[in-house]
Design a protein that fits this description.
Layout lengths: L4 E4 L11 H13 L6 E5 L5 H12 L6 E4 H10 L4 H4 L2 E4 L3 E4 L11 E6 H11 L4 E3 L2 E3 L11 H33 L3 H4 L3 H6 L3 H5 L7 E5 L1 H17 L5 H9 L6 H8 L9 H19 L10 E3 L5 H8 L29 H9 L10 E4 L8 H14 L4 E6 L2 H9 L8 E3 L4 E3 L5 H9 L2 E2 L3
Parallel strand pairs: 1-2, 2-3, 6-9, 9-10, 11-12, 11-15
Antiparallel strand pairs: 3-12, 4-5, 7-8, 13-14
Helix pairs in contact: 1-2, 5-6, 6-10, 6-13, 10-13, 17-18
């Protein structure tokens, strides 16, 4: 998925850049039923109506194309990263939701990310081991307060962010060493031949990359699960005092077995994705805290760390590694499927409520946001509603959105009789794939995504 075809967008003077070629690309994908290449439609309010018609037609095929990127925020991202206004207008999507600047080296260094972080497992460390000193070489995280002794979910979140800071320090050391080793021992002549500046200057691409934005990024998994966990703990433990922290920890260690009623209470606690300020407030606090914590670090070449939302299918693997969590999730169950996506099945108040929730989180970095619509809501009079929905998405300053347009009934049938559905294609993360080729856990995670409908 490191190749993504960007279409539409705006010209350097701000005019609509969509044209007949944009439509031909989308029509070809629809007719040939291709999974590749992923299409990133750079959306802006003045995009030609006939192009949006073609985009909705393509979406209705259920292929998962196109994904939509907020054109304004692509440029804003470039400015945030320190690019010139001219270069910022050349930001493009590559990979799931990773950004790049055309003509500039960035994600082709052979070591794209500082690392990945399983937020659910970081929360486990706070709940079970926060009172223990943690050490990695010379980097030490002092022992803190036991979770059972904390007086609010705010304290839990602050301890969570302290542990993130500790992990970022480890990532900073490993990133700096790895990047230097790559430059010294693994030059990249093939990709260097494809870049104008490396040819003009006679410099290897890996070294050129260190002169610009090295983009040392951390991919965050399961942050929404932590948001929902904090909201549930504050509500049920500290506000309503229905349970104690000790009782919660006992239930989590037992994977909720023997605590089924309690599990239901935590499952039904406020969840991100329903336009509920109680839950969404925790999303804002945690995401801003994560960004502030991670961006405070710089690599050896002076580039600030950042968060990347390119989670791909890692949310299923990361879920397998994590124990039961206070959002009501069982041990080894899938995590939330995107950095801004509500937990699958938790967003029950309709698609506009989801946009309202997700839009409360300020734009800071790349994010991945999945939604699923019933096919009939891209047909007939509903097409205008869907087009208006995208306008609202853009107005809420959400960087990305992509859709599965297929019913749970069809997905379950494909799972039961794969030989009958060899051409069924779905959107997984930053790419589309044949449904029957996906692992069962990934198939189930797509089925569990809420089937949104306009009321």
């Amino acid at each position: 998925t490191l190749y993504t075809a960007d279409i539409c967008g705006t010209t350097p003077d701000g005019k609509d850049a969509s044209n007949d070629l944009s439509c031909i690309i989308m029509e070809t994908l629809a007719n040939l039923r291709l999974t590749q290449p992923p299409i990133a439609l750079r959306y802006h309010p003045d995009i030609a109506p006939e192009v949006m018609e073609m985009a909705i037609n393509l979406g209705r095929t259920g292929l998962g194309h196109p994904s939509y990127f907020n054109e304004d925020l692509l440029e804003e991202w470039g400015l945030q990263r320190g690019y010139s206004p001219e270069d910022a207008k050349n930001v493009q999507s590559c990979g799931c939701v990773a950004n790049n600047v055309m003509g500039k080296a960035q994600t082709v260094t052979g070591l794209v990310n500082v690392g990945v972080m399983n937020s659910a497992m970081v929360l486990e460390d706070i709940l079970y081991r926060n009172d223990q000193e943690t050490r990695s070489g010379h980097i030490v995280l002092p022992a803190g307060k036991k979770a059972a002794e904390m007086q609010s979910a705010q304290e839990l979140m602050e301890a969570f962010l302290e542990r993130v800071k500790y992990l970022a320090k480890i990532g900073q050391v490993s990133w700096n060493i790895a990047q230097q080793v790559l430059m010294d021992h693994k030059p990249d002549p093939a990709n260097s031949l494809l870049n104008d500046e490396t040819l003009e200057r006679g410099i290897d691409l890996l070294r050129l990359n260190k002169e610009g934005d090295t983009w040392p990024s951390v991919i965050i998994f399961g942050a929404i699960n932590v948001v929902d966990s904090l909201a549930a703990i504050q509500k049920l433990v500290f506000d309503e005092k229905k349970y104690t922290m000790e009782e919660l920890l006992t239930a989590l260690r037992a994977n909720w077995e023997g605590h089924e009623v309690m599990n239901q209470h935590f499952l039904n606690a406020p969840k991100h994705g329903n336009d509920d300020d109680y839950a969404d407030g925790w999303a804002v606090k945690l995401f801003v805290g994560l960004d502030d914590t991670i961006s405070a670090f710089k690599d050896a070449w002076g580039c600030s760390f950042t968060i990347d939302g390119s989670t791909a299918t890692g949310y299923t693997l990361m879920g397998l590694l994590a124990g039961a969590s206070p959002d009501g999730r069982m041990a080894s169950a899938t995590l939330a499927d995107g950095t801004r996506s509500p937990m699958a099945g938790a967003d029950g108040n309709g698609p506009t409520a989801v946009l309202n929730s997700v839009g409360k989180i300020p734009f800071m970095h790349t994010d991945l946001f999945n939604q699923r619509f019933m096919p009939e809501f891209l047909e007939g009079d509903n097409r205008k509603l869907f087009a208006d929905y995208l306008k609202v998405w853009h107005e809420r300053r959400i960087p990305h959105i992509q859709f599965n347009v297929v019913s749970s009934e069809e997905l379950r049938a494909a799972k039961a009789q794969p030989e009958e559905y060899s051409d069924l294609i779905v959107r997984v993360a930053g790419y589309s794939a044949h449904f029957i080729d996906l692992p069962e856990g990934t198939q189930d995670s797509i089925i569990e995504r809420t089937e949104q409908a306009f009321s």
